[in-house]
Amino acid sequence: MTDQYLLVMVKGTLVGFVLSWVATAAFAQGPGAVVESQPVVRGGSSVSQQSPTNNDALALLLEQNRQLQAEVQALRGMVEEQGFELRKLQRDSLSRYTDTDDRLRNLETATNGQPAVAVLVLRPIWHRMRQ
């Protein structure tokens, strides 16, 4: 897998978590009272006029947002570490491959028509003792 693919997967997963947490927070509040929208007055703010339930929900969403940002940062760090490890493994694999290829090529040129497999004849120890 490429780093870009992992990043897309992490982002997709995080979007799913955010949507599920928002839905859970909205469901946890239960059916609340219907609050009519209030016009924003210049110099004033309609946020200060909101009910305590809405302020609690906003505080909950802000806290969840902070937690998600921290989690995204941690996941990005993990993706970066895994990308580094993947590149290291690829370099090591290429190095082993080229080393093996070089050794085989050197062995092939060193034999020059001789059989590539050396045959070693071993005699049992008891055979040497009899002589």
The residue ranges in which pLDDT falls below 50 over 5 or more consecutive positions are none
Radius of gyration: 34 Å
What is the helix tally?
3
Roughly what percent helix? Answer: over 70%
Intertermini distance = 64 Å
Strand content: under 5%
Largest sheet: none
Query: What is the strand tally?
Result: 0
Overall pLDDT confidence: 77
Shape: rod-shaped
Q: Helix-strand pattern, N to C?
A: HHH
Structural class: mainly alpha
* Total individual domains: 1
Overall description:
The chain is mostly helical and 131 residues long. The chain has one domain. 71% of the residues lie in helices and 0% in strands. The protein has three helices and no strands. Helix 1 runs antiparallel to helix 2.
The gist of it:
By secondary structure, the protein is mainly alpha-helical. It has helices at 3-29, 52-111, 125-130.
Topology:
Elements: H1 3-29, H2 52-111, H3 125-130
Descriptors:
single chain, 131 residues, 3 helices
